[in-house]
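Quick start: read one record
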Amino acid sequence: MLHSIFWLLKSTTIGFVIPCPDPYTIGQVYILYAFVFTGTVWTLFFTEKEFGKFMNFSRLSILLACFAFALFWRPALSEACENGGPVLSITVITQSPEAISEVNFKLTDLEDMAPVQFMTNTPWTEGVQEFTGIWMSQILDALNIRTGVVQMTAINDYSISLEVTEFKPGGALLAFKRNGELLSPRKKGPFWLVWNYDSNPAFRTESIYSNSIWQLDRVTISR
């Protein structure tokens, strides 16, 4: 048992980065930091034999020390986490005149844009789901984008590309909540591009399904 624990901690690296969680998982971040730091200390300073001796007389004190360290030192938490919600990064690339600009939509910004809700079944969930978000067409209007190509990229670098003209009110919704809860990466967040699939047969096609990108966190618009 001790052998397994030691090598599990040996696999922990000091470069571990915790992804931005939603507000309900901040406590989990602190716990993860504690174990990451503990594993790093044991990895750097103890052999397996010394680790066994160390566990016998001071494991509680080191765990408490690591938890305190994690509680007061939180550099891996991004500004988005500190502000209590996800951030959608949008980069606009203009060809003529050549220019690049970036806009970050925080959760508070999106909530000020009068979010809409609808209920629908999806091929990836069980039962009817309630989605809350902003029409992508509304976001493009806010940026005064009328033409161009929108590339949407997920945390795992999966991406889709659509013409700006394909986004219409009542079509693609940039959802940030499902069933009243913020979307975390484990629940296909921080953003999920969804359609009201039950409302129109045109939304139940392979093309629409393949464009229903989840874990979306950045958008690039070229025009």
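The chain is about 35% helix and 25% strand.
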